[in-house]
Amino acid sequence: MLRGYVDSGSKVVTLRESDAISLGLPFHTTQIRLNGYAGGSVVVKHKIFIDLNVDLARAKVEALVVPDCVQKVSIIVGQPFINHPGIVMVIYGGQVRLFNSHKTPFLELNELPPRKITLWAKETTVIPPNHIGHISLYTDQGDVNEVFIDLQQRTWPTQFHVIPRCVIDLSKDAVVPILNTSDNPVCYAKGRVVARASLCSPEIDPIEMSVCSISQEAVEYFSCEDLNDVTDSDINPESKNELLTLINKYRDCFATKTSELVHTDASKIGIGGILLQVQENGELKPVQYFSRATTKQEQVYHSYELETLAVVCSMKKFRIYLIGIEFKVITDCNALRTTLTKRDLIPRIGRWWLTTQEFNFSIEYRAGSKMNHVDALSRNPTPGSSSDQTMEAELLHVEVTDSDWVLAAQLNDERCKEIHQSLSREPVDESDRRVHNEYALKDNRVYRKTTQGLRWVPRGVNDAFLTSEISETQPVNHMEIRSEVVKRIQEQQSTQKKYYDRRHAKEKTFAVGQQVLVHRVKCSNDGQSKKLEPRYQGPFTVTAVLTNDRYVVEDLKGTERCRKPYKGICPSDKLKAFNTVVSSSESETDAENSHA
C-alpha cells in the first residue's frame, strides 16, 4: 500500500524510485522529460507496468520511475489511470470517488461504499504465539473520531492472526486487539499498515455549516521545530540556526504596495515572457525571464495560438510569484483580450485557458513597437536541452500542507475577525456564547464544530454564509430594488415570449388551386451578384396537399417557362400566398358595373 495523490491534470503516472524497487517489478527503458516539478524538469529513463488499485477502481497502467529527490509522495496517479476504459470518477458529497463501471452498473452514487481510513502502527509491537495483543494506532487523515474495523483474517506464511470486528476512537489513545493463533510471533513495525476502517457517522440530519476565516495576525518567530519538516535531517545544527536567523530576519521584507506585470510575445521559432514588478515610484524592475524554442508541432500553429501559448507557458513558469495575487498580462496580440468572452473556442485554446483558471489576471493590449524587450526573447529563444528523441509530458507537482492553504484562506474576511476575537476571550453576552458553542480556536485558526469533529473546510458554505449575510444586512431602499428587479424580469419574459412565439408559430396553410410564390434558391458560385434578384419566383398553383406541411405546385397554364412544365414539392415555410394587385382603373370600372 502506497500513499499518493490523484492528479487529474497530470498526463502520466509517476512512482518514486525507491518504491518501484521495493515492488520488484521489471524496469523498461524510456526517455521522457517531465516538466512541472516546482517549475523545473527531470528526464525519466525507466518505466514499469503496475496493477493499480485506487478506491474502488483497478487497472493496469504504465508508471514512470522518478528520483526520490523530486517527489515526496510515493505515487501520483494521473490521466492514464483516470481515463482508463471502464473507470469512472465522480465528485459526490464533497468527495472524489473512483470505481469500475462494469462492476457497479446499477449502483447509485449515494450507495457507494464509504472511503476507507488507513490505520498505521504507532510503535513496533510483537505479539507472542497463541496470545492476544494490542497495537496502538494512528491515522494521518485529519480529525477522525470513531471508526469501524471489520473482521479481518491475515494468513501470512506461518503467522496466522485475526483482527476482530470492533469500533475504536482515534481521538484518544486508540488500540486494536489482535489474536495470534499461530506458533510464531507476529511483528508489526512502526509505520506499518494495520487495517483499513470505515468512518462512523451518527444517525442525525446533517447540520448547516458556514465558512469562516480570521483576520491577519502577527506570526510568532519561527523555531527550529518548524524547520524539521522542510529541511533534510543531514543538516547540522549550526547551518539550521543560520537558516532560522535569516528567515526570522527577512520574513516581513516582502513589498506590499507593488504590482506585477507579465509581458509575453511569440514567434515561429520561440516564445518568451518577462515578469516585471511595478515599484512604489512607478519604476519597472524585472523579476524573472523566460524563453524557449518551439517544437516542430508548435511551429505550424497560427500566430494567435502561439501568442496564447506564450501567455500560458509564462504563467506556468512564474506560478510561484503569481498565484494568489492580481496581475496584468501585457501582449501585442489584440485578439487575446476577447478570448475569455468567446463562446466557441478551438479545443487546444480551451485546454490552455483551463490551466489559467487558478490565476487572477487581466489582459492588456500594447503595440508591438513597445514590446521590443520581450520580442527579443521570442526571436532568440533558449535552445531546448532535450533531443528530438526525448518525449515531453506535463506534470504539476506542488507540495501543499494544511498549514499553508488553510491559513491563507482564513486571512480575508473582516467579519470573521469578530469571531476570532470573540473566541480569544471569555463570553460576555449571548452572541459570544453562541460563537463559542459553534466555533473553536486551534493553532490560531477558526474551526467549525461538527458531529464529525472540528472542520476547517465545512460543507455547504455558500448558502449558509449568504443567508446569514442577507438576513443581517438589509438594503436601505429595498422597495426600489424590488421594483427594478420586477421590471427587468418582465422585460426578459417579454423578449423570451416573442422568441418563443416566432419559433412556435402555426404553419401556413394553402388550398388546392391557390396561387403561391416559391422561395428562390440562390447559387453563389457563378461569380455574379444576386442582390437585385427577387427572393421569390412564380406564381405557381397548388395542385395537391400532402402530409407534413408539404404541397405539390405546378406552373400556371400558359405561363410555362420551358418546354416541360414545372412540377415539384415544397414545404410550407418556402411558400407564400400570391396576392393579385388590381389597378385603380379596373376598380372604377367594376364599381360602375355594379351600380348599373
UniProtKB/TrEMBL annotation:
InterPro entries per the record?
DNA/RNA_pol_sf (IPR043502), RT_RNaseH (IPR041373)
UniProt entry keywords in alphabetical sequence:
Endonuclease, Hydrolase, Nuclease, Nucleotidyltransferase, RNA-directed DNA polymerase, Transferase
Residue ranges of domain Reverse transcriptase RNase H-like in the record? 262-359
Record carries keyword Hydrolase: yes
* Any one GO molecular function term: RNA-directed DNA polymerase activity
Q: What is this protein called?
A: Reverse transcriptase RNase H-like domain-containing protein
